[in-house]
User: Fold these one by one.
Assistant:
Number 1:
Amino acid sequence: MRIRTLLIYVTTATAAGGLALTTPTASATTASTSPTVAPGGNFDLSVWSLQEPVGSPGSPTTIPPSRLKGANGFQDAYFYTDTRDGAMTFWAPEKGVTTPNSHYARSELREMNRDGSPANWSLSGTHRLDATLRVVSVTSNVCVGQIHLGTGGSSTKPLLELYYRSSGDIVLGTENSPSGGQTPHPVGHVPVGKTWSYTIGVSGGHTIDLTVNGTTTHYPIPSSFNGYKQYFKAGSYNQSSSDSTTKGARVGFYKLTVSHG
């Protein structure tokens, strides 16, 4: 699949002489995403499984790559192709089934290996998650990308989470240690409904590389994470909960690729 993305940015100088947030003045084109096929017809979903906000309490339904792949692959009310623009769309209401370690519902992809096993990579080397997306609606706050801890210890925390808030602010949350505590880093601002892009990366085993709309920032990885493997996640991980099944976070992706080197 080839996705052609056209974004025009406006940058301003900060008082410190750097560049302020860049925001798009035009949306991404989606000429190669078909609105008439399932998400698996537009995206390589052979390296992802899907968790949805339904199932048994504490045990959300998971859809394997084999069911997601192809133009006739899985889709439903929580994961589908937007028939207007071909976006791979994730819907996570405020009320839904959650994992045992979270109070929030999600419609979210989890990185897998091509042999069907869960991805579980070392911090050494170079790892990238590239996305073009727009937040269609959000009640309060939604996580649209993660690097999550895999094997190597008992922690169920993420290494980082990329949040989009209803104000339009984009915030990176970096975990202080595997035992918890998160530091927020404001990294951009895009109005609700506008298209933007991010790259979440790890390089050299010690550095997080984040690019939002062409502006790159770097963050050190604490040594306490060295023993853990990692994997990517992306989609709509709602960060608010209530008894409402109509309020929530809806996110559409126009590009989603993973690379390791």
Note: The longest strand covers residues 248-260.
Number 2:
Amino acid sequence: MVQIQNTTEPALPGLAGGPRRESRLALLWKDIKKSKHYYIMMSPYMIIFFLFTVIPVLVSFGLSFFYFNMLETPRFVGWENYSRLLLGDDVFMIALKNTFLFAVITGPLSYIACFLFAWLINELSPFVRALMTLVFYAPSISGNVFFIWLIVFSGDSYGYLNGFLMKIGVLLEPVIWLQNEKYILAIVIIVQLWLSLGTSFLAFIAGLQTVDQSLFEAAAMDGIKNRWQELWFVTLPSMRPQLMFGAVMQITASFAVAEVSIALAGFPSVNYAGHTVVTHLMDYGTLRFEMGYASAIATILFGIMLGTNMMTQKLLRKVGE
């Protein structure tokens, strides 16, 4: 018997008779039409977000290539603002060093402290947990409550710290803490750490409340033996969204320190000891009105924060592995 082979070639994609591959744009549009109700509900926030966040960031980036003093027409200067900032502005280098010190010290410490306090408080009874949550969260919602530290570090003998140290014989005369460049940065870091138990702390409390308790039973059957293993292999992977949110909030807060430094050390501080990138930005943007130069400062700060956030996200993806 002679076997007849089928010599008909399959139709090529995109030709007549063949399956057509839809473009990504067509698939996106189909998905938007399918989920149009969700997009309609999101649209008010997205409109506000684009108007007051995305567009200002893009305008600021474009303005960083211009000289603009808000009186004259913007004049294109290319990379002059960036070269002046990175090569000729010694005060910006001091501010950048101080900002990185803030970020390296207050960022990780406050992030770990927020989680540890939330983890410990979560084990308490509901009433005690609510009370302790209020106690730890109160400083971040109390406005200018950090002004109490002006009394603690007051430069006369009536300041709490000076009075205590003189009473026990450590000091013979008062120290002007907030006018001494050796102490300014350390004091601002301490106060910032005190204020840092805020939104991230609440996010961690909420995340710990949503962890499925059945996971701990399954983990015990799989060989988990102690609370630290439960924390690493069960608790942390179950609250990755809250961990990510807390990381973003802490990074933003640590790089954006300005109000505390101005309130405690003045503006500018002695020999710029408490100067940060944000206070430098405020100097050129709100006092000197060099908006192009201020935009260049803002762009560099935005790039640093974006890079740090991406690195943090990459590290958090390894939690529980």
Note: The CA atoms of residues 25 and 127 lie 53 Å apart.
